[in-house]
Design goal:
This protein is an alpha+beta fold. It is built from 13 helices and seven strands. Helix content is 47%, strand content 11%. It binds a DNA duplex through helix 3 and helix 9. Keywords: DNA recombination, DNA-binding, Plasmid.
DNA sequence: AGTAGCAGAGGCCGAGATAG
DNA sequence: CTATCTCGGCCTCTGCTACT
């Protein structure tokens, strides 16, 4: 339970201040919260959202002890409002990546097995607007390999990515790109072919010499590192210092990039009505919304 | 609308494999 | 052997979403 750590942190703070965490006192909590926002003794200042969540943790902990902390008390409301006003700023956004930048990034990859894999990851992730965890969770065929979060099927017209999300499954159609160099489906086929992958995790580890595909699923952390490294190598935003450039690109950038380039609102809408299937061609032949072309690949 | 809870993202560090 | 590289484990922070 993550709330256990909230409690531990709070009681440590109380010890340092020489006060008793029990019984709950709104004044004490308010003091604690404002300390979190003020970054005491060199610690990093927490954001209002985190402080809010910490407060939830404390309320929960008090409740577990049969006690009641009123989070709506005047003192707490006042300090939270003050923190929010002080920190008011537009939410931090990761830099979105454009299609030409993705191509520049893939161009920095070598032509060994690892390079094929990473190229497929970048292009597929970008064209499908996938999260890093969604990318590494993909299986070939619908299987239940450990850690599976969905699967991908390849057809003539493109690839169909099916994600098993928390809120149900949804499908993403990834069409073919305008050229082989920019085509996510081609990159995927190349990787699967040379890695001799016929089932199980789509993206696996590669031996260090880049000649053999291993059978363990890739960790999602690799995606984040891949994006940052290739963005640096490709010289994107070269006018910024390296530290800023690293902070700018994250594993989220693939998703954000697609959203920008085709103007979606950032979420797949599972409630949007499926087109009538009465006389539509079979699902796998449709690829009605070519995200790949829309994304500029 | 506000809250609780979940899960995604990044930092740090170390394990394991391989190159020299 | 040591150096280097890739990647995963574990942690914290925080954004997102379901629930009330």
């Amino acid at each position: 339970m993550a709330y256990g750590r909230d409690w531990a942190h709070f009681t440590r703070w109380c010890r340092l201040k020489g006060v008793d965490p029990l019984p709950p006192s709104a004044e004490l909590i308010a003091l604690y919260l404002s300390d979190l926002a003020a970054a005491p003794d060199g610690a990093r200042a927490l954001s209002a959202a985190t402080i809010d969540r910490r407060l939830s943790g404390l309320v929960w902990n008090y409740t577990q002890r049969g006690l009641f902390l009123d989070r709506k008390s005047r003192e707490i409301i006042a300090v939270l409002t003050e923190i929010r006003q002080r920190q008011a700023r537009p939410p931090a956004r990761k830099e979105a990546i454009r299609a030409d930048e993705i191509l520049a990034m893939t161009a920095t990859l070598p032509h060994d097995l690892r390079g094929l894999r990473d190229r497929a990851i970048l292009l597929l992730g970008y064209a499908g607007g996938l999260r890093r965890s969604e990318i590494v969770g993909l299986d070939l065929r619908s299987g239940d390999a450990p850690g599976s979060g969905g699967h991908v099927e390849i057809f003539q017209g493109g690839a169909l990515v099916t994600l098993n999300g928390r809120t149900g499954r949804h499908e993403i159609e990834v069409g073919r790109g305008s050229t082989k160099r920019s085509c996510p489906v081609h990159a995927l086929e190349q990787w699967l072919d040379f890695a001799r992958i016929e089932s199980g995790p789509v993206f696996t580890r590669v031996s260090r010499d880049g000649k053999r595909a291993l059978d363990t699923r890739l960790n999602d952390r690799h995606i984040a590192r891949l994006i940052k490294r290739t963005a640096l190598d490709a010289g994107l935003r070269a006018e910024l210092p390296e530290k800023d450039r690293l902070a700018l690109f994250s594993g989220h950038s693939l998703r954000a990039g697609l959203i920008n380039s085709i103007g979606l609102d950032g979420r797949h809408d599972p409630k949007s009505p499926e087109p009538s299937t009465a006389d539509a061609p079979p699902r796998r032949e449709r690829f009605r919304m070519n995200l790949t072309r829309a994304a500029g690949l």
